[in-house]
Specification:
Helices cover 50% and strands 20% of the residues. By secondary structure, the chain is α+β, with helices and mostly antiparallel strands.
């Protein structure tokens, strides 16, 4: 979630460098097309969701935070899947978290948050 929120906003050369490193580490388990599609969704939606992708029992949502120089970091909220549905993350958590991300971005000197 936090990783995808940051990766989605990296300069393309840096992004490909990281994707290539992941391929070296994880080999055939890394599907570049799937990653790029997921990052396109993050850019469109303004947030990333992790629904137990890496750890069972971990569901999370992350949003990017920008500085005057570009992507600075990501903030995220981790929940238990039994307590909060993906739908609830999208409909209740995302709008609020995006708002917080925009406030932090402004505080860090970002004038216009990229879409």
């Amino acid at each position: 979630m936090a990783g995808k929120s940051v990766l989605a906003h990296l300069e393309s050369g840096k992004l490909m460098e990281i994707v290539n490193e992941l391929k070296e580490i994880y080999g055939h388990r890394i599907d570049e097309n799937r990653i790029m599609k997921a990052l396109d969704e993050v850019r469109t939606d303004g947030f990333a969701i992790n629904d137990e992708e890496f750890s069972r029992g971990i569901r999370a949502i992350g949003v990017p935070v920008f500085s005057a120089n570009g992507i600075a970091c990501s903030i995220n909220v981790v929940v238990e899947p039994e307590e909060v549905s993906v739908e609830e993350l999208r409909n209740r958590y995302a709008p609020r978290l995006i708002g917080v991300g925009k406030e932090l971005s402004a505080a860090l000197g970002c004038r216009v948050v990229p879409q």
